[in-house]
Amino acid sequence: MDKNIIKRMQYIEASAIETHLFYTNLIGANKASIESLFAMKKLSFMEISVYGHDLDSFRNITGRGEEQYRRLIDNLAILESLYPLKSPDLNIVIGIRTYRSFQFGKNPNNGLLEKIEILRKAGVKVGLSCQIDNWGGDITQSDIADIEMDLSDGKNLYRKGPCGLPFDSIQITATGKVNACACRDPRGTLMLGDISNSPLADILSSKNEKWMKIISDHESGHFNEVCSSCGFYRSIYDERRVTNDGFMTKQDFFNLI
């Protein structure tokens, strides 16, 4: 967990960057951090990932205990109390990942679902899924053998050309490491460089052999272990892969850098 995330986001707020998004499980938040999020003018989207629909399912899916579960409920309550202060331009989504058998009832039967229902009525969008991503092959079927959920595996996806993520979803970690993929490389196998040692402009450059090798390997149909099992693959040539500025081709990205 990045304990300086609010400071980093406030840096973005004061920069030339026009908009940013935030994904969180909310467990590590508190009233001050939620107030800071709601005070941000450029924050346009926030998704809260909730694992499980009650204490037992939360424990089974996350491996965490009751303390973290209660903290999540408390932070949802804070979010509810501060909700009127948020910018109308900030869209909030709660994504629930839980058992296949779970269905929303008319009357929520625990504190977690009660808070989610209150937020839904206030305008927060709520999604429900029973799928667990394989996180680039790190999660296997045996890991979820006792959990009533489905494993999402991208090994059977049709792939043609470089994935768009190394172009538009670069990850810069809290320690300054630059990863070619912000979505599904938990072990950092796609590391491109370190901003402590090199300017970001040099790392995200056609002169960076590590970055160019990932792209050229993809272009020739050679996907490494992480990329070949990832369910997030979107071809750079797929025009459905749209950014805020519209569709960008591979050459558009190279021209930009």
Shape: globular
Helix-strand sequence: HEHEHHEHEEEHEEEHHHH
- Uncertain residue ranges: none
Mean pLDDT level: 91
The order of strands across the largest sheet is 1-2-3-4
Protein architecture, described:
- 33% of the residues lie in helices and 16% in strands.
- The strands form 3 sheets. Strands 1-2-3-4 form a 4-stranded parallel beta sheet.
- It is built from 10 helices and 9 strands.
- The model has no long low-confidence stretch (mean pLDDT 91).
- The protein folds into 2 domains: 5-129, no CATH class; 165-256, no CATH class.
- The relative contact order is 0.10.
- With 257 residues, the chain is an alpha/beta fold.
- Helix 2 packs across helix 4 and helix 4 (66-82) packs parallel to helix 5 (111-122).
- The longest helix has 17 residues, at 66-82.
- Helix 2 links the parallel strand 1 (20-24) and strand 2 (43-51).
- The protein has helices at 5-13, 31-39, 55-62, 66-82, 111-122, 165-168, 200-203, 209-219, 225-229, 250-256; strands at residues 20-24, 43-51, 91-97, 125-129, 131-133, 150-152, 171-172, 177-179, 191-194.
- It starts with a helix and ends with a helix.
Topology:
Layout: H1 5-13, E1 20-24, H2 31-39, E2 43-51, H3 55-62, H4 66-82, E3 91-97, H5 111-122, E4 125-129, E5 131-133, E6 150-152, H6 165-168, E7 171-172, E8 177-179, E9 191-194, H7 200-203, H8 209-219, H9 225-229, H10 250-256
Parallel strand pairs: 1-2, 2-3, 3-4, 5-6
Antiparallel strand pairs: 7-8, 8-9
Helix pairs in contact: 2-4, 4-5
Key descriptive features of the protein:
3-stranded antiparallel β-sheet; 2 domains; single chain; 257 residues; 4-stranded parallel β-sheet; alpha/beta; 33% helix; 9 strands; 10 helices
